[in-house]
From TrEMBL:
It holds the Pfam family Aldedh. Belongs to the aldehyde dehydrogenase family. The keyword Oxidoreductase applies. The active site is at E253. It comes from Pigmentiphaga daeguensis. PROSITE patterns: ALDEHYDE_DEHYDR_CYS, ALDEHYDE_DEHYDR_GLU. This is Aldehyde dehydrogenase. Residues 19-480 form the Aldehyde dehydrogenase domain. Keywords: NAD, Oxidoreductase. InterPro entries: Ald_DH/histidinol_DH (IPR016161), Ald_DH_C (IPR016163), Ald_DH_CS_CYS (IPR016160), Ald_DH_CS_GLU (IPR029510), Ald_DH_N (IPR016162), Aldehyde_DH_dom (IPR015590), OHmuconic_semiald_DH (IPR017628). Gene3D superfamilies: Aldehyde Dehydrogenase, Chain A, domain 1, Aldehyde Dehydrogenase, Chain A, domain 2.
Length: 485
């Protein structure tokens, strides 16, 4: 595979950076790309270009503006194979997952928000006034302005476009920094933006890191009007401090320590398959993944044995092999973090039901960041491996007896992102889902997404919701106009 040069996209033009850094393929350690790190001056130029493009972009009739989003979606689909190869080269994720989730959702996000922007109603009220007449109140919405987008490495194109699409749909312009770990599909999207004639400055891509690099230059920039970020909770705190002097709005989708509750009346096979997918999908690198499984005692032993079988059926193969069901972690650095938790779990007294280490293949995959899918039991609820997000293909399974106990166990966390409830008693399913202190509760399913619904979490899992009309609250500023009639 040839080594790509990934450049910055500023004011409609591709530019070299001040230095380059290497991007390695996590499946085999091969050099994939040399990435051009943007300077502070280049980030300043991107913000200036976005500011200059804002009035004309915001003034476009919504159908014309959203036609560009449909064109971006069409462009992703037109270059599907390029985006697929880029995403897989960056992440090592299996072609089955990337071709069904990551790339299609890249296009779907643009279409969903184009449709929402075109069809959303305007909030208004007719107000009776003391003089027996009325007043008309309506919320006139304007774009937030120049939006800083900082996106993560786990679902790179999906989460990049999950932010860029609503930002552009509602008339904002964007300065976006993809994770330095997965720079390729964001750069391809910039190529598509140029191909479809998106006006210069509307969408800018700058590459780099967080501290003392493009991430910090964006979040501390006085002319950025708001930041939308997906990533680790600690980074979210850092960004909040950076925007505090300017009291800028933030939209955060951060970490999670998500629970799955399996009741004895669950469809056993469906619950096993569903929990296995929610634990091991994308090598456990989805903020919504399950890391804590609680199973009602009568089926506990049977469930542990069944999930062990599912884990051991996973095919840790080459990313482009359609038989592969689990690829490597995204980098050796991240594997070291996950391995530190595998070691910690043993120190904290875990029983390792399966996995717990690094597989050996005897081929180029040994240079990759592969790790064994792992299941623990026997940890106390106070263990760090029960409280802290691992963000890898690992889970802990514990028994419970009553519904009240299950709810208490699931909610005993400072995170608040997602939960999954497995039961055939839907009255219980609704009741327990509503009792979860999370932003997203699935019943007899997981990661089933309707893009019109509110998406996000509370506590350490973030601030705000994006999706459907909920994206309005971050990407627009309403002026309530009151007219005496
Ligand atoms: O499915 C989505 O729209 C989404 O935002 C997924 C986020 C996953 C984070 O790791």
């Amino acid at each position: 595979m040839s080594v790509k040069s990934l450049r910055n996209f500023i004011g409609g033009r591709f530019e070299d950076g001040i230095r380059t850094f290497d991007k390695l393929n996590p499946a085999n350690g091969e050099l994939v790309a040399r990435v051009h790190e943007a300077s502070r001056d280049q980030v300043n130029a991107a913000v200036a270009a976005a500011r200059q493009a804002l009035p004309a972009w915001a003034a476009l009739p919504v159908n014309q503006r959203t036609d560009y989003l449909y064109a971006l979606a069409d462009g992703i689909e037109r270059r599907f194979d390029d985006f697929l190869a880029a995403e897989i080269g960056d992440t090592g994720k299996p072609v089955g997952w990337a071709s069904q989730i990551d790339i299609p959702r890249g296009a779907a996000n643009f279409r969903a928000f184009a449709e929402i922007a075109r069809t959303l109603d305007m909030e208004s009220f007719m107000t009776d006034t003391p003089d027996g007449r009325q007043a008309l109140n309506y919320a006139y919405r304007k774009p937030l302005g120049v939006v800083g987008v900082i996106s993560p490495w786990n679902l790179p194109l999906l989460l990049f476009t999950w932010k860029v699409a609503p930002a552009l749909a509602f008339g904002n312009t964007v300065v976006a920094k993809p994770s330095e770990v997965t720079p390729s599909t964001a750069t391809l999207l910039a190529e598509v933006a140029a191909e479809v004639g998106l006006p210069a400055g509307v969408f800018n891509v700058v590459h780099g890191f967080g501290p003392n690099s493009a991430g910090e230059f964006i979040t501390t920039h006085p002319d950025i009007d708001g930041i939308t970020f997906t990533g680790e909770s600690a980074t979210g705190s850092t960004i909040m401090k950076a925007v505090a002097p300017g009291v800028k709005p933030v939209s955060f989708e951060l970490g999670g320590k998500n629970a799955a509750l399996v009741f004895e009346d669950a469809d056993f096979d469906a619950a096993v398959a569903g929990v296995a997918r929610s634990v091991f999908a994308n090598c456990g690198q989805v903020c919504l993944c399950t890391e804590r499984v609680y199973v009602q005692r009568p089926i506990y032993d049977r469930f542990v044995a069944a999930l062990k079988l599912e884990a051991e059926k996973l095919v840790l193969g080459r990313p482009m092999d359609s038989a592969t069901t689990m690829g490597p972690l995204v980098s050796h650095e991240h594997r070291e973090k996950v391995l530190s938790y595998l070691r910690l779990a043993v120190e904290e007294g875990a029983t390792v039901v399966t996995g717990g280490g690094v597989p050996t293949f005897g081929d180029e995959r040994d240079q990759g960041a592969y790790i064994q899918p792992t299941i623990w039991t026997g940890l106390p609820e106070t263990a760090r491996c029960i409280k802290e997000e691992v963000f890898g293909p690992v889970c802990h399974i514990a028994p419970f007896d009553t519904e009240e106990e299950a709810i208490r166990l699931a909610n005993d966390t400072h995170y608040g992102l997602a939960a999954a409830v497995w039961t055939t008693n839907l009255t219980r399913g609704h009741r327990v889902a509503q009792a979860m202190q999370v932003g997203l509760a699935w019943v007899n399913c997981w990661f089933l997404r309707d893009l019109r619904t509110p998406f996000g979490g509370s506590g350490l899992s973030g601030i705000g919701r994006e999706g459907g009309r909920h994206s309005l609250h971050f990407y627009t500023e309403p002026t309530n106009v009151c007219v005496k009639l």
